[in-house]
Design a protein that fits this description.
This protein has 352 residues and is α/β, with parallel strands linked by helices. It has helices spanning 26-37, 53-58, 66-70, 82-96, 109-112, 133-141, 160-171, 173-176, 183-198, 200-215, 220-229, 231-249, 252-265, 268-282, 285-295, 299-309, 312-321, 336-341, and strands at residues 3-4, 19-22, 42-45, 62-64, 75-78, 102-105, 123-129, 148-154, 178-180. It has 18 helices and 9 strands. It has a 9-stranded mixed β-sheet. Strand 2 (19-22), helix 1 (26-37) and strand 3 form a beta-alpha-beta unit. It is globular.
Length: 352
């Protein structure tokens, strides 16, 4: 394991560098504001009609189309969605990058799966904060910093690592620690974590438990509290002190249930399915299917999104959360169409 901190990152490696941030959504607004506060001149590149443009301008940034924004940049950070990056590079961005510039990504998808081929005369690296953008910004302002991953893919200058560390320091991440990895390792572990646990695994487990209780005749409101609402309490304990703190904090009955029933739910069959998911990530078939889905108009993806939003747990949860003002409930989750119409929508509500 190689970790880097402030003492390992020399800001002089990017002295006088002009920075362009492509995208101004969750990560984009945090990178742009943190780097500006660290003393770098920052420009934002957004496509015409971007829902984030009004917010970026209101935050005091010069905004132009992506190709123009990178023309004189020494550092370019790509923070648009994975599935949009290939088209952007093919539309003239690759040719507009200055020889010798530092081209950064916050996720390895496009480089690892080869949907983007960067110019050979650019350093190519990654700085991937391990938190949503609003936390990256808040931790920077609190002078704590958000931990991040770092990887170098291409190093024609021989200075890619030191330049990338300087960027990570400007972002605030070297205060918390930056872990060295590779584009391959970051991409495959990130996708697996999302699919097996953080998004796919958790949402499927919550829905299955909710349905098990309601199918057995229990009140849906009780099922919501037991299978979804209290999940945050448990996750917070694990976040602070690992599984040991969670088990220390819950009742002995709950701890015993953990030991005897957890292995029944997550058994060898589930582990085999996890290996299958990882295999599809490793061999590129998941990436291929996702790229094809976007090329064909995202019909299956959008249909699945609509179907999932109609699950009974969503209606029950919305009703119960409306009675809990202390959790600051979101009354209506923004849709892509609504965001596109509301050009002044706060950047934090816009994906990517």
């Amino acid at each position: 394991m190689q970790m880097y901190y402030d003492a390992d990152a020399d800001p002089a490696a990017l002295a006088g560098a002009r920075v362009t941030i492509l995208g101004y959504g969750s990560q984009g607004h945090a990178h742009a504001q943190n780097l500006r506060d660290s003393g770098y001149p920052v420009r934002v590149g957004l496509r015409p009609g971007s829902a984030s443009r009004a917010q970026a301008v209101a935050d005091g940034f010069e905004v132009s189309d992506p190709v123009s924004a990178v023309a004189d940049a020494d550092v370019v950070m790509v923070l648009i969605p994975d599935h949009d990056q290939a088209a952007l590079f093919a539309s003239g961005l690759a040719e507009a990058l200055r020889p010798g510039c530092l081209l950064l990504f916050a996720h390895g998808f496009s480089i690892h799966y080869g949907t983007v081929t960067p110019p050979r005369d650019c350093d190519v690296a990654m700085v991937a904060p391990k938190a949503p953008g609003h936390m990256v910004r808040a931790l920077f302002k609190d002078e704590i910093g958000c931990p991040a991953l770092l990887a170098v893919h291409q190093d024609p200058s021989g200075r890619a690592l030191e330049r990338t560390l300087a960027y990570a320091r400007g972002l605030g991440s070297t205060k918390a620690g930056v872990l060295k990895t590779t584009f391959k390792e970051e991409t495959e572990t990130d996708l697996f974590g999302e699919q097996a646990v953080l998004c796919g695994g958790v949402s499927a487990l919550v829905k299955a438990a909710f349905e098990t209780l309601t199918d057995a005749g229990y009140q849906p409101e009780l099922a919501y509290f037991e299978c979804l609402h209290e999940l945050k309490l448990i996750v917070d304990l694990i976040y602070q002190g690992g599984l040991s703190l969670m088990r220390y904090s819950v009742s002995d009955t709950a701890e015993y249930g953990d030991y005897v029933s957890g292995p029944v739910i997550i058994d060898d069959h589930v582990r085999e399915r996890m290996r299958e998911v990882l295999g599809r990530i490793q061999d590129g078939s998941f990436a291929e299917h996702w790229i094809d889905e976007n090329r064909s108009g995202r019909g299956q993806f959008l249909a699945r999104r609509a179907a999932e939003s109609g699950h009974p747990i969503e209606a029950v949860g919305q009703r119960l959360r409306s009675q809990m003002p202390w959790i600051r409930p979101v009354a209506k989750v923004p849709t892509e169409a609504a965001v596109a119409e509301a050009t002044a929508e706060p950047a934090a509500a816009v994906k990517a």
